[in-house]
Design goal:
376 residues; alpha+beta; Ribosomal Protein S5, domain 2; Alpha-Beta Plaits; 2 domains; 6-stranded mixed beta sheet; 4-stranded antiparallel beta sheet; 11 helices; 21% strand; globular; binds alpha-D-galactopyranose; galactose metabolism
């Protein structure tokens, strides 16, 4: 059933409109966002759709194709609504907290963004509802302000200490482009990213590995980065350049912290190098940067799991130009840059490696760069 069908069935009337917001794949730049560095995501064609209609002031109800019961709430404080509806209540809270007059609304949600796979299903939910409420209420919220409002819903209302990558991707990405975002200034550059024209493709391999310890480990990485920045006397690790790295590492006593810093500093540079190569039309040459990013996440940031490492190794052995885990880590998806003509062979190689390791089979598909959040 579509979001519009659920809306009609649940509320007995037509929605005022449909709004969509996508999941994302981050091409490169992992855990750099909360270090005020660089990221380069593109939006997936998979998206969350919110069918939305008006309700009395101060009343919100949300239902979805993946939950049995609707959830109703009024004006709430952070954390009051829990579970998936908390992301929706968080958006209402964040807009109101920023001084906007949020209209009451009835909302029905449907989504084909895989849940819990590191493809930002929660940001897609937040961004679809945010966009809908802004349009429905005629609120004057410029596009560049929206990701931070959605991020506050997640940070303050839901209580997840994430950066601004996912919401920026869901809201600001454009079809056929990768979004080069400076997470300090929120400046963006839309980088042409039409791989099909070059006979290339991004193969996404969902490891289907159960996410474990995600929240605690994510928070621990963030804390370690912030402590390191404090010790080094910089506002954020973004301010340490590759040229400063050796000197910075020498000032840190803790080996784990040194490796966390090395990942962030080298990863920021890899994003810059990737952008330069894409701008120069040298797409194949980004492969080694992707693979180096994976090694850095595996060895220095320590956020990979055997399932994603095997996906990277088997894709590379099958001829991929480069491959890396994408997203927060501890499971989730791998992306591989491949010749389109070799897609089937690459998938077969990864599946065979998984079978041999007796892992749950992966799910693979070719990802293209879709549009950001929009009214349909
Ligand atoms: C998750 C977070 C993002 C970002 C990535 C890692 O997706 O939500 O803010 O930190 O992990 O790059």
């Amino acid at each position: 059933m579509s979001a519009a069908d659920v809306f009609r069935q649940r509320y007995g009337t037509e929605p005022a409109g449909l709004w969509a917001a996508p999941g994302r794949v981050n091409l490169i730049g992992e855990h750099t966002d909360y270090n005020e560095g660089y990221v380069l995501p593109f939006a997936l064609p998979q998206r969350t759709i919110a069918a939305v209609g008006p309700a009395p002031a101060g009343e919100w109800t949300v239902c979805s194709t993946f939950a049995d019961e609707p959830v109703s709430f009024g004006v709430t404080e952070p954390g009051e609504v829990s579970g998936w509806a908390g992301y929706v209540a968080g958006i209402v809270w964040s807009l109101r907290d920023a001084g906007f007059e949020v209209p009451g609304a009835r909302i029905a949600i449907d989504s084909d963004v895989p849940l819990g796979s590191g493809l930002s299903s929660s940001a897609a939910l937040e961004s679809s509802v945010l966009t809908a409420l802004i349009d429905l209420g005629g609120l004057d919220v410029p596009l560049e302000r929206r990701p931070a409002l959605a991020q506050r819903a997640e940070n303050v209302y839901v209580g997840a200490p994430t950066g601004i990558l996912d919401q920026s991707a869901s809201i600001r990405c454009q079809e056929g482009r990768a979004l080069f975002l400076d997470c300090r200034t929120y400046e963006i550059d839309q980088i042409p990213f039409d791989l099909a024209a070059e006979g290339l493709a991004i193969l996404v391999i969902n490891s289907n590995a159960p996410h474990q310890h995600v929240d605690g480990e994510y928070g621990a990485r963030r804390k370690s980065c912030e402590e390191a920045a404090h010790i080094l006397g910089v506002p954020a690790l973004r301010d340490v350049t590759p040229d400063d790295l050796a000197e910075a590492l020498a000032k840190l006593d803790d080996d784990v912290m040194r490796r966390r810093v090395r990942h962030i500093v080298t990863e920021d540079q890899r994003v810059l190098d990737t952008v330069e190569l894409l701008r120069a039309g040298r797409t194949r040459d980004i492969g080694p940067l992707l693979t180096a990013s994976h090694a850095s996440m595996r060895d220095d940031f320590e956020i990979t799991v055997p399932q994603v490492d095997i996906a990277v190794e088997s894709a590379l052995a099958a001829g991929a130009y480069g491959a890396r885990m994408t997203g927060g880590g501890f499971g989730g998806c791998v992306l591989a840059l491949i010749d389109t003509a070799r897609a089937d062979e690459t998938v077969a190689a990864v599946e065979a490696a998984y079978a041999e390791a007796t892992f749950t089979a992966p799910t693979c598909w070719i990802a293209t760069a879709g549009p950001g959040a929009t009214r349909l």
